[in-house]
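Entry type: protein chain
Record version: 2
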Amino acid sequence: MVFKKIREHKEYIQDAASWFQAKWDIPQEEYLKSMNESLLKETS
């Protein structure tokens, strides 16, 4: 298994949000919002 950091591979953010949604049944939009906010904080 290979782990990739979203901050280093932003092209996978949609796939990651879909996986988390399927795993924990929390809306995908919430994961996307959280991931994008996290990425913005890192670049500030």
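Comment: The two ends are 31 Å apart (CA to CA).
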